[in-house]
Amino acid sequence: MMLLVFLIALAAAAAQNDTQTARTSSTSAVRREQFRVIYEWTYIDYEWESQEQQKAFLNTSRYIPQNVLISGINFYGESLFLTMPRMLDGVPATLATIPVLQTNTAPKLKPFPSWSDNTIGNCNALQFVQNVEIDRNGIMWILDNGRVGTLTPTPDPKCPPSIVLIDMKSGKNEMERIPFPPEIVNPNTTYLNDLVVDNRGDGDYAYITDNSAVDPGIIIFRRSDKKSWKLRDSQSMMSVPEATFFRINGTNVNLPVNIDGIALGPQFKRNDDKVDRTVYYSPLSSFNLYAINASVLRNESLAQNNKNDLRPYVVDLGTKASQTDGMKMDSTGVLFFGLIGNSTIAEWNSTTDFRTGQRTIARDPTYIQWVDRFTFDDRGNTYVVVNRLFNFVKQQVSLNEINYRILKSFTGSKSYVFGDDLTSESQYSAASIPMVGASLLMVAFSFLLA
Q: Which CATH class is domain 2-12+25-449?
């Protein structure tokens, strides 16, 4: 009998250990590649409908090549989707596509969904897209600030800040626009920067960073009833003076930017047996990474109170070697992020201590100048946008230099949106028991029946 008890205890321990090591070893189980440049541009050009259209845009300053910057990136099907925020005048299209499979090193961008859907001043079209996300159901979630010219002396709130949804599976590319209420998102001060999408059985949510200079916070959008609210924390979501200075490749820039990058961890079961997720975020002008449970963000009542109500729920995970712009988590809980001042791409397995678990996976002061955003394809590749933003904000973009790059590495990763769904009954089937633990349990039961 003692042997039976020992075998069962050993089986349970092995099962728990296998569940843990499945995540911690996921990135080391594949053969990694170095990041390499697959696309690079001195300036961004488009697939014009005609030469006459291109000339008309140039002649009327609706296209100013040095004012077009690539910021966001996402993957779906055979395309990479790129965002070109209209921070300056002369950006013809704010959302466009290029092929995943490389045909040349500097492809022209194809406006998405169409040229007309990128018309400035048409509130049925896209005005200012900083980032997009495509969820596990093939729905594209687009952040449209509505306000253009944010780096000019007179930013223009052309249209209400909105979230725009497109069902990519249908192939129709029809846009559903949901404006944010002005009492939740101020159209004159907001800067909708980045988002993650939380698909679960209880509905789809988006968690959105607003790095507004006057009212930063996280906006929560619930798709089922199209309701939104905003949560704030005066400590973790604000820039700090010691992190506003950036020096990259000999260029200095001062950017006091609030909450910026955001990432979403895998589902996990809490002690009360409910499923939750961890939301990670950081101001651009900060060295710290913070975390908060998604269940806290979903609590609408916290939006009715003061800015310190989130404080007990926010976890300071520790510091990074430099500031971070975009970040993205894969399906197993590995966070990919840039370290801007170090010209570095780093990763962290979220099952380890952040203070000791960070790891440099690429460093190059020539090719890695301001890491902006990440995405994963369906073949295990990770893509990174590098855009030399420090030159852009100082309006010192030279058309004689490479300004924008997309790097690619095989990491064996897939997006967080395809992580295990613990709300699905199939996750608790016998097939999900780790192999070693199941084998030991069989031995134990065989001993019992003998």
A: mainly beta
